[in-house]
Queue: 4 jobs
Job 1
Amino acid sequence: IDSFKRKGFITGLFSMIVVGAAAGARCVHAKACRTVGAPFTTNKYLRFSIRLYKKIFIMTNSPDGSLAQRREITSESVAAGQPAEPAQVTQEIPSASQQDFLVQYVVIRKDLWGSLRWPLGSVVAQACHASSAAMWMYRTEEATQQYLAPENIEHMRKVVLEVKDEAQLRKLSEQLAQGGIGHKLWVEQPEDFPTCLATRPYAKSQVAPYFKKLQLSKAPIV
């Protein structure tokens, strides 16, 4: 319950209690209501209403209002003959991380900066080559145009992963080709040396399963 709704609800409830108490007082002194049970019933309702108001006020103004408090109030309402408040159904709004966004995957060989001892700049250059080549090769794709659109250019998403060596990189490239996933395997020339690959932009849900077994590239910068 947001602040505005909470205050409105509490104010309305308090007004109902005050009106009910006044009506009860009139009823006690009215000839038509002078029965043995009328004063007791009115006082019992008033006491219940005040207790209910206090508990709801505490629960709605306290960030740690627990489910147990809600159940206590509901059970007390039923015991007093009052209709229980219907359960409120809230719809969870997916966060940005849960939404299906466009993303480009870049996969680099880990042995470049490991056993082969490539400098950081050379490794970054390979990733840039693969990413740029994939964008150009699939520039007519709607997803690529949307990914590079002026309104989205400041919000591009890339996921950089790593594979162990050339054999694993080539195997991944073959799997992507078999699945119809557009990508560029970058082979450094004139050495004819494959270094990394990059996909064209895709909706994450469409390509993420191909990369679920790979780790994020977390090479230390030294």
Note: The chain has seven helices and six strands.
Job 2
Amino acid sequence: ELQQKVEETEVLKMELQMLETERVRLSLVEEKLLDVLQLLQQLRDLNISKRALGKILLSTLESYRDPQPGKAQLFEVLDTLQQELAACELLHKQPMEQAQSPRSLSNPLVISC
């Protein structure tokens, strides 16, 4: 009976370790997903075209054509998408364009407060 309890304890320890590993993995995926969503929000605010966003997404997905994606591949896809979005030219041009041309002059009918 004592041997059975020891074996059950070992099985529970292994299951706990697997759950902790999965929790850490999910936490990393969540962080990466938040990064991707923030970049998408920034690009949307910069009025990037849907076509340009679609090209970025499709080129990322084309890199991973494995018919049976695994858990590790999900993180790799998100990581690659985050890198592609961060490399988008609009994100890097935006501060310079704002400093060079004020928006209030774009439409003469708009009254600036």
Note: Helices lie at 2-45, 50-62, 71-86, 89-100.
Job 3
Amino acid sequence: QEHVCSLPKVPFRGAPCSDAAGSQVPYAAIMKQVNSSLSGLLWDEVQKAPFYEYKDSVGQFHQVWFDDPHSISLKAAYVKSRGLRGIGMWNGNSLDYSKEAAAEQQTQAMWQALTP
């Protein structure tokens, strides 16, 4: 089915699925793969998050969901509008801190998105 990626059931504390069913991909790798992916960048309006789809070398279908500056800025604006005390993000060390110009721009945009 289009845009459906099933995860194996890997129970954790009563939840039917856990992060053990997938794997974390560094933001740098995502930024390099998204443009050459099967789908290109897609947007889920319900989750307010980007994702893309690809097939690996053996034809297995994959989806990669992530946050980008746009999705983080929407979440940060929501936090601010509700008067909540803060926002966090998962693994800022997954950003690309190399001295490549594109990497520096992407990393800076991610950190700036946290301030609505």
Note: The beta strands are 42-44, 49-55, 61-65.
Job 4
Amino acid sequence: AKMAARPSGGENRLVSLPLSRIRVIMKSSPEVSSINQDALFLTAKATELFVQYLAAYSYKHGRGKEKNALTYSDLSHTAEECETFQFLADILPKKILASKYLKMLEKEKREGEVGEDDEEEEDDDGEDEA
């Protein structure tokens, strides 16, 4: 079993994403001071494979199949419905009309005010017991 050749020079053929952009994103984390070339390549390749998997899954389980196309709503539906991809739900929200969104915000604000009052009462009870 031969080990994979270390990416050098020809790495662009092995990965589609621009390594310079991946490096910039990785360096944006305050915990990262330097990035090993192998780590950079593997992160880029893993990201590429993940995006391919997300796209294939969304296409297979979405309505875009009917039109032979992958749509944004296929991706957002996958993020919402599939447990594996739920961490993307904030990044791929369902498209809704602005008027509907504003109504939702107003409703959340009203419910939030009710919820805050309930939480304060619970906190008071907790202090009495302590």
Note: The mean pLDDT is 80.
